[in-house]
């Protein structure tokens, strides 16, 4: 009997692995779909699930910036306060960061309560870090949710993602909310740049390396942006910028294509989420969701067999298994997988499982993470394809002109976010897949560069490079 139960579990795993598989051929279809959707999103408003938002950032920092700047960053889980001192010549003389978790209740409260908390935190941060230099200073504000910008320093919230839901904020001007809260708290600062986290990351990447053309964030949620030619933004005819370029915030978490390897677990996760039918790519890739996909697979297995013992009620609780815990199981290097056993016990109330079951759990984590990382990699190559940096531009009628890399230029992509930074296996799978999709001739021209805290530091830099504008 016991063999038969094990066989049932193996079948669940096999089916999952098959449905979630990402052979390079499928990844290339995702690459093409990404490039096509980017075109469609630039062609007309609502032309694609990719919003392809204008950021009004047309000049990226070049390293010449000077002075002390502050930035605020609201992401998904953490809230960050930063102070940087720039010394020109690509140097950051000092850089202080403070992280605070956003209290859960504020994520679903009112805009006033949320921004009051932020303004107060900034006030305290300034008092601890160079009080007298902050007065009247320009502030960079990283707000990692979809915003329709009307200028570099104004924009309205389109919708919430990542578990936030504050109804009264939707369609409100985000900078105005912050600016008002700052004056209520007596903080004399000017919000000079409102940026998405990926835009901040691009700014920092460009500060260090002018070949940086795109940025990706993979943390609680995921997003990407890149530098586009202004004349390619068809939906905004006659868009004039001093540089001839414009950073486009893709909001790629909402990307969708029939080529994405979707499983029954993804369908259930989406249906039970706060935003069904929304952020489909994000739900397969980002830190908020990966642990929960693993939980769903374990749950299914425990319904089919008793290898996990009696069915734990914890297994039906959404988000009990967080992605950092999933990563800890995946990266467990103890010979008996004792870390896996401990997490199963403490988090899911599953006790005394034999080694082969622990190995099975590691395998589930591997399937989920590998798919996520490889899809993110395909997304990145999709962006490169759109701007002709994937090495295929030199190909005419299927024939390669003087070698595929003949026209290829050095290209850098800035990456940040807790998932990429802290989950080693995820990072390795992603890097590997980018190289695999590009092929060995082109891959050496493309480098992925980690920009830790880039989203915040970059926002401060954009505040710096735009502080004289208005
Ligand atoms: P945010 O996206 O919330 O602004 P981060 O970029 O720091 O902030 O990302 C935090 C997210 O990264 C967490 O919600 C978690 O999903 C993921 N993460 C953080 N640390 C780890 C880890 N060690 N292993 C796997 N995932 C992690």
Automatic annotation (TrEMBL):
InterPro entries: ATPase_NBD, Hexokinase, Hexokinase_BS, Hexokinase_C, Hexokinase_N. Keywords: ATP-binding, Glycolysis, Kinase, Nucleotide-binding, Transferase. It comes from the Eukaryota. Residues 13-205 form the Hexokinase N-terminal domain. It holds the Pfam family Hexokinase_2. Residues 214-464 form the Hexokinase C-terminal domain. Its EC number is 2.7.1.-. GO terms for biological process: glycolytic process; intracellular glucose homeostasis. The keyword Oxidoreductase does not apply. Pathway: Carbohydrate metabolism; hexose metabolism; Carbohydrate degradation; glycolysis; D-glyceraldehyde 3-phosphate and glycerone phosphate from D-glucose: step 1/4. GO terms for molecular function: ATP binding; D-glucose binding; glucokinase activity. The keyword Methyltransferase does not apply. Belongs to the hexokinase family. This is Phosphotransferase. The lineage of its organism: Eukaryota, Viridiplantae, Streptophyta, Embryophyta, Tracheophyta.
